[in-house]
Amino acid sequence: MNNALSISGLTKTYADFTLDGVSFDVPVGSIVGLIGENGAGKSTTINAVLGLIQKEAGHVSLLGKDTLDNETKEQIGVVFDGSNYPEILSPRKIDRIMKNVYDSWDESSYFRLLEQFSLPPDKPIKQFSKGMKMKLAITAALSHHSKLLILDEATSGLDPVIRDDILDMLLDFVQEEDHSILVSSHITGDLEKIADYIVFIHEGKVVFSKPKDELMEQYGLIKCGAAQFDALDPSDIIAYRKMDYEWQVLVSDRDAMQRKYPKALIVPTTIDEIMLLYVKGTTQKQTTQKGK
Amino acid sequence: MKGVLLKDLYIAKSNILVTVVSLIVLGLGLSFLLETGALLVLAPAVSTTAVFISITSDAGSKWNKNVLTMPITRKRLIGEKFVFYILLAGLGFIAALIPCCILMPTDTAITIDSLYLYASIGISAALFAGGISLPCAYVFDPEKSQVVFMLSFMASTGIIVGLVLLTNLFLSVKDHMLPAFSIVLVISAIWFFLSYRITVEIYQKQDIN
């Protein structure tokens, strides 16, 4: 089994949105970041993978299995935005419940993680902060020997300190070579820190699925004026955007571009900028009217 | 199923406790004014309110979405709610039966026949009401479900009256009270089971967002 999760041609249609043939893989031992603006289809993809919504077409393979049976679910930890546990419960009560839900529930690991993250076992969840609730949800997801962790916007709305703690938890988890993570987020900075691959979804379609290092080390942003922009070969341009005083042009190989356009200012780019250029920029070059 | 049932018990614990204690106290307290056994008519249905507390809590915390990512099937999740409903109806029945048993030696109005009659009416009412309200809880939003829950008790009374009148066509209910209400009880049990199967069918196809 090379992939912990393999999705091909996943399709789901709603009245105002279509998830259109989404395909990507989560290789075993890697962290895959699923990015995209709100409403791009990240949660729909995850919900379809988890069998929460009925897919119209496509194929999903989880941990080498084509059907999502209870045996497979035992090995998957899922965390959504929010704790999704009734607020009246305490971590200790959750332990008692989970012991009867998961055959592989590891009570000692659960309480060790609670202690590690300073979560009081007998305090009702309603008295927890958002960060504590999220840590509890991740603790529960990690306490049944999961091999695949799926997180849907789990870090949104959290402060940088808590987010950093959670990212450390994820990095710890993936130290085991057969552990993998699919994490959706629109906080691309977090994914820059931990992801091995980035899958970008826009308007229900996968725009790209690439190793993060390729994006960070090879992609570049040409910042230029109108004349320089007009001189660019359209085949070199992935996307571009007109700003107040300059043109921003996304290119896939900044070293090659620097050789081709020695006078151009080409800077490394962030995932945020790549996403913005794809979403708000133009992908087909049109010549400018100079001076405009 | 045990884990999900335990979660519901944690959520509804205080409500269950209040209901059980109230039924016992009411049964003993009202024995001077009313026939204690009559409480058996109300007790099973009244004690099922905790199910709807748990369903509302589930909707608020998106528990169902969470639990369906665990080794729990949709069929099992629905089955647990129906089992929880029956357990609560049974608990209400036992709570109302306790004062009857205490007073039975001194109160000649409490007989096995009268207890059976009241119990069969009470349990039938609870099963008919649950058979209506539980599927609706998975189709409608929590607010509408609450309305259906309240209306279901009225509907169940109407169904029981209708069935008794129907039975009267081929069996004199006045002369055969116990067999007539036994028929109603059996029909209510079948109704409840069919309702479970229908709810499972509906929920299997539902998108959980």
Q: What key phrases describe this protein's structure?
A:
heterodimer; A: 292 residues; alpha/beta; six-stranded mixed beta sheet; 11 helices; B: 209 residues; mainly alpha; globular
SSE topology:
The complex is a heterodimer of chains A (292) and B (209).
Chain A: E1 3-13, E2 18-27, E3 31-35, H1 42-49, E4 57-62, H2 70-73, E5 76-79, H3 91-99, H4 107-116, H5 130-142, E6 148-152, H6 160-173, E7 180-184, H7 188-194, E8 197-202, E9 205-211, H8 212-218, E10 220-224, H9 226-230, E11 239-242, E12 247-251, H10 254-260, E13 265-268, H11 271-280
Parallel strand pairs in A: 3-7, 3-8, 5-6, 6-7
Antiparallel strand pairs in A: 1-2, 1-4, 8-9, 10-12, 10-13, 11-12
Helix pairs in contact in A: 4-5, 5-6
Chain B: H1 2-29, H2 39-46, H3 49-61, H4 63-67, H5 74-103, H6 112-137, H7 142-167, H8 177-204
Helix pairs in contact in B: 1-3, 1-5, 2-5, 2-6, 3-7, 5-6, 5-8, 6-7, 6-8, 7-8
Characterise this structure.
Helices cover 32% and strands 26% of the residues of chain A. Chain A contains eleven helices and 13 strands. A six-stranded mixed β-sheet of chain A has the order 5-6-7-3-8-9, with helices on both faces. A four-stranded antiparallel β-sheet of chain A has the order 11-12-10-13, with helices on both faces. In chain A, strand 6 (148-152), helix 6 (160-173) and strand 7 (180-184) form a beta-alpha-beta unit. Chain B is an all-alpha fold. Chain B is built from eight helices and no strands. The longest helix of chain B has 30 residues, at 74-103. The interface between A and B is medium-sized, with 32 and 26 residues.
Mean pLDDT of chain B: 91
Distance between the termini of chain B: 22 Å
Oligomer: heterodimer
- Uncertain spans of chain A: none
Shape of chain B: globular
Large-scale geometry of chain A: elongated
What's the helix count of chain B? 8
- Rg of chain B: 18 Å
Uncertain spans of chain B: none
Number of helices, where a helix is a run of at least 4 consecutive DSSP H or I residues of chain A = 11
